[in-house]
Design goal:
The structure is a single chain. With 278 residues, the protein is mostly helical. The chain has one domain. 71% of the residues lie in helices and 0% in strands. It contains 14 helices and no strands.
């Protein structure tokens, strides 16, 4: 009876270099879409879109309703309305993204396969960003389309051609910042509930400090201390509407980029196959 050699053989299959994160992305999306709670949250996040669409329809068909006519301010306000749902989606989807893997010691399994740390982080990040854009960028762009359909012309779109890049830039900036921050916090703990509480506390604590400083100084030049205020200010600049804060926009942009960079450093240090104890 012949005995076949069972020694080492080189892998003869193909390797999806740089594309392994796509598997994590598709798996994560399927898991979320299979959960009824997340579906309910996604539906609720589109309610402001329905309300704004009705207002645009009324403005297009009734001249007396000019107060709700489409404008850059209306689109900026809509993006502001979505902040609550951005917060809820970030907490519910991001808090346990890495914390649950660390709790189950799954990082060793992930990183023992042909999956780099960068691909792992991008896979987790892409899921969260995709759902955040689904409730910010997509409905805002659809509102632009509906405005054209309701008006029957491209007059508003031609006069406000910058709205498409403004919506895209602000949505991406907001999604990237909050996603990186929540993933960085998630990598620091094995308890997703603690991560959610910490993320919430940081937001509201910095907001409270900013409010106290405003009461003391009488101006909003120190509003950059509150992380959310920086996004608000940048949103006002991008949409070309009156600014809510007096902080110079380069400072606000520096804080946002600094948070993204700090989060990247934390993720680089914490996402490892083997826990290193100093």
């Amino acid at each position: 009876m012949p005995i076949h050699d069972q020694g080492y053989k080189r892998y003869g299959g193909s390797r999806a270099r740089g594309r392994a994160w796509i598997v994590m992305f598709t798996t994560g999306v399927r898991a979320i879409l299979g959960n009824r709670r997340w579906i309910v949250l996604m539906i609720a996040a589109w309610l402001p879109f329905v309300v704004q669409a009705v207002l645009f329809y009324v403005a297009a068909n009734f001249s007396q309703a000019s107060i709700v006519a489409p404008s850059a301010s209306a689109f900026r306000s809509f993006m502001g309305f979505q902040d609550l749902f951005v917060f809820l989606v970030t907490i519910t989807l991001g808090a346990g993204a890495i914390a649950q893997d660390r709790r189950a010691n799954a990082l060793q399994i992930y990183l023992s396969k042909p999956l780099t740390r960068l691909e792992y982080i991008v896979g987790k990040l892409s899921v969260l960003i995709a759902f955040l854009l689904f409730i910010t960028w997509l409905p805002a762009i659809l509102l632009l389309v509906l405005q054209v359909l309701f008006a029957g012309n491209f007059a508003f779109l031609k006069a406000n051609a910058y709205l498409f890049p403004a919506i895209t830039l602000f949505s991406l900036l907001e999604a990237l910042m909050v996603s990186m921050c929540i993933l960085a916090l998630s990598s620091l703990s094995t308890n997703s509930r603690f991560v959610g509480i910490l993320f919430t506390a940081v937001i509201f604590f910095t907001k409270a400090i900013s409010g106290v400083l405003f009461a003391i100084t009488g101006n909003t030049s120190l509003s950059w201390i509150a992380f959310s205020n920086n996004l608000t200010l940048l949103g006002d600049i991008i949409f070309r509407v009156p600014r809510q804060y007096e902080t110079p926009w380069p400072v606000a942009l520096g804080v946002v980029l600094g948070l993204i960079a700090l989060s990247a450093v934390i993720l680089e240090r914490r996402v490892r196959g083997v826990e290193i104890v100093a």
